[in-house]
Amino acid sequence: MEKPKVIVHLYSEDTDHGKQAEKTFQDDKYSVSFRIDAGAHMAVSDGVVDIAFLQPSLVDWKWFDIFTKIRKAYPDLPVFLYSAEMGLADGLRSSLEDENTFPSNDISGLKECLDRLVAEKERSKKKVLFVDDDQKILNAYARMLRKTPWEILTASSGEEALEIMDGHQVHLVATDIKMPKMHGIALVSKIREIDENVPIVVCSAYQALKDDANLRLHGVTDFIEKPVDADALIKKLDALLA
């Protein structure tokens, strides 16, 4: 996976917080660029970055100008605001903190923020394949999961599902059982021949299948009863993809 790109805004090349930030990235997990003053905003504009690092100060408010420009141009870009000035981080937390702005007086919080970003990027790459001979059900799955970070793939038969898996790295398969041509259990067996570890969830209206030992013997990981509840489905998939 490509390293997350970080822009660190500095007031001068030898500021203490710049040195602290460098230490934070010594594990080489991130691609870090250091910019002075307006260069931070220019760097964000010129290339895709994943997070901006600013040092708020009550003495020099240039940081706020850069923050405003970044936030206006890139409202979803995470911005980490680090300040060791007494009470400043708390004040910023009450006035600026939101889901994409992280004021802190602890430099280690930057690494925690980045680690979450890495996890989210990895999670967002996951592909979930739904298999069902009823197109309306496949459409329903797509609607339920449209706001999730996963890429949703659909197949209307076991044969089509295997073709998709031949061309994609699929991280989870959710399949119906009773389908024409290739039965769901036959599909599970075929999948297990090519991938022993991918989670396979059976989606069926037959509640008795939930405790069917044969499903486990064939390699089924879990069971979801139809009609599928959206929240329950997301919770189940989230746990299996973690």
Please, could you describe this protein's structure?
This protein is of the alpha/beta class and 242 residues long. The protein has two domains: 4-121, Response regulator (Rossmann fold, 3-Layer(aba) Sandwich); 125-239, Response regulator (Rossmann fold), CATH 3.40.50. The protein is 43% helix and 19% strand. It has helices at 16-24, 39-46, 62-73, 88-95, 108-124, 135-144, 158-167, 184-194, 213-218, 230-241; strands at residues 5-10, 31-36, 51-54, 79-82, 101-104, 127-131, 151-155, 172-175, 200-204, 222-225. A five-stranded parallel beta sheet has the order 2-1-3-4-5, sandwiched between helices. A five-stranded parallel beta sheet has the order 7-6-8-9-10. The longest helix has 17 residues, at 108-124.
How is the CATH topology of the largest domain named?
Answer: Rossmann fold
**What's the overall average pLDDT, rounded?**
80
Let me know the largest β-sheet: 5 strands, parallel
Count of individual helical segments: 10
3D shape: elongated
- CATH H-level superfamily of the largest domain: Response regulator
CATH C-level category of the largest domain: Alpha Beta
Q: How many beta strands in the DSSP annotation?
A: 10
Low-confidence spans: 38-43
End-to-end Cα distance: 17 Å
Walk across the major sheet and give the strand order: 2-1-3-4-5
Using the 3D structure, state the CATH architecture of the largest domain: 3-Layer(aba) Sandwich
Query: Please, how many domains?
Result: 2
Order of helices and strands: EHEHEHEHEHEHEHEHEHEH
The level of helicity is: 40-55%
The structural class is alpha/beta
Strand content: 15-25%
- Calculate Rg over CA atoms: 24 Å
